[in-house]
Amino acid sequence: MNSMFTKIVRIVLGLVLVVFGLNKVLPTPLIPLPQLPDNAASFMTSLAATGYVLKVLGILEVFIGALLLTRKWVAFALIMLAPISVNILLFHLFLDASGMLVALVIAVLNSILIYKHWSQYRSLFL
């Protein structure tokens, strides 16, 4: 579990989550937001209109990223990230295909790390 490959994957995923999470929380985004197709823009506008969904998601992403970067509760962080990464993938699959590469990278990195930590999840499926 502590191979150099696993360490790199964990750090890259943690950094991506912290940056994209801060993008949702901070008043001025770190990375400029791309122009979204109409359906995707409408969906994101409705999430933003709730006043809490994007902020909670951003805080969760920063929290999960911090756990991965500090190597604390990694297995817990990965399980928390699983539904988020599936939703990121589905959003880009159905609403904004231009961001599919980043969505695939997040899902694949999460899957690799879950596989590497599988021994910690085995008891859940017995």
Task: Write up what this structure looks like.
This protein is mainly alpha-helical and 126 residues long. It has one domain. The chain has 6 helices and no strands. Helix 1 packs antiparallel against helix 3 (53-70), helix 3 (53-70) crosses helix 4 (74-94) and helix 4 runs antiparallel to helix 5. The protein starts with a helix and ends in a 5-residue tail after the last helix. The model has no long low-confidence stretch (mean pLDDT 92).
Explain the layout of strands and helices.
Blueprint: H1 4-25, H2 38-49, H3 53-70, H4 74-94, H5 100-116, H6 118-121
Helix pairs in contact: 1-3, 1-5, 3-4, 4-5
Descriptive labels:
DoxX protein; mainly alpha; transmembrane helix; 6 helices; 126 residues; globular; membrane; transmembrane; single chain
Helix content: over 70%
Please give the oligomerization state of what you see.
single chain
Low-confidence spans: none
Number of domain modules: 1
Computed Rg: 15 Å
Distance between the termini: 22 Å
Structural class by sheet pairing and helices: mainly alpha
User: How many helices?
Assistant: 6
β content, as a range? Answer: under 5%
Major sheet: size, sense and barrel closure?
A: none
- pLDDT average, as an integer? 92
Please provide the ordered H/E string of secondary-structure elements: HHHHHH
Q: What spatial form do the alpha-carbon principal axes imply?
A: globular
Number of beta-strand segments: 0
